[in-house]
Amino acid sequence: xxxxxxxFRMITASLFRRRSRMVVALxxxxxxxxxxxxxxxxxxxxxxxxxxxxxxxxxxMILTANKDSFxxxxxxxATDVVKKNELVGATPFRxxxxxxxxxxxxxxxxxxxxxxxxxxxxxxxxxxxxxENEMLVGEKVAADLGLKVGxxxxxxxxxxxxxxxxxxxxxxxxLSTGGSEEDYLYLNMADLEALTGQKDQIDxxxxxxxxxxxxxxxxxxxxxxxxxxxxxxxxKRVTASETTVLSKLQALVLLxxxxxxxxxxxxxxxxxxxxxxxxxxxxxxxxxxxASDESIIAEFMGEGIVLGAAGGFIGVCWIRICAVCQRQCVxxxxxxxxPVDSAYDPRLDCRFRDRLPLPDQECNQH
Length: 366
Description:
- By secondary structure, this protein is an alpha+beta fold.
- It has helices at residues 3-17, 19-54, 72-80, 115-118, 139-145, 189-196, 213-226, 236-278, 280-288, 293-337, and strands spanning 61-65, 87-100, 103-110, 123-126, 134-138, 152-157, 165-176, 184-188, 204-209, 230-234.
- Strands 1, 2, 3, 4, 5, 6, 7, 8, 9 and 10 form a 10-stranded mixed β-sheet that branches.
- Helix 1 crosses helix 10 (293-337), helix 2 runs antiparallel to helix 8 and helix 2 (19-54) packs across helix 10 (293-337).
- The N and C termini lie far apart (74 Å).
């Protein structure tokens, strides 16, 4: 019999002779490994999940012009600095004063598709403008001018030293945010450029990036260095809140992880100490017949390694099985609440319009 086989046989025989204590230690390690595996997964995944949720509160970076305006190329150069998997969206804005019923109103030209990514909290009664010469009206403007969805109204723009330019627009929807956005008209950028006769001018852009605070600050510095015609700034109220919440959650998870690890180590150490105490006579006999301290220590270390490997494997497999079962239960619950329709698309369901990107079609009322 080889030395290694004899060593392994001694370890397994020792473990099986003390099954009750070893089962307790094995369960402690398995439970500790399962909890630690789950907590580590949460610790690593919390920033991504919370970052995605915070993006629902709007953009976390603003790009402003160093002079009068900047161009689409400048905006493209700025967004190229950001990693594609971290860039949620970038929405340009151009502001001009127009008149409706001889009342001055601030109009904003923008990209109606990208604005849904950077401002998912917008509540629109009606629809976003899709066709040419359609507009989205803030609730305050709609109330002051008596506008409602479906109305057609003439929008007048007067350039400096020029004649009035008038275009008829249809109200596609009204906007409600509870903020200053309700004081504006929102047009497609192409429609505002046609109305003013001036193209490729952007006053500011909102950029939504899903990453941590350190990376955001690095992006700001890189954009300011590489794109001289604009200035990048962070939206402090969004980034500060995100950083505070994430740091507290991660600290809490880390604290619980350390406590669970300490309790597991204490349980295993107590069990191994009891095993050593029970085997005092055996250790003394082996020492008397010439066994070295290294060989005795190696045997106990081998028992600990076998227990740790077996318990860790059982714990990780257990938590993975629980995770798969939980995911299946959640999916079954979700589909049980959805209508049985082969053509059903959750993106077209109004119940999920704030959580899923809507295509150009109208949402279904269920």
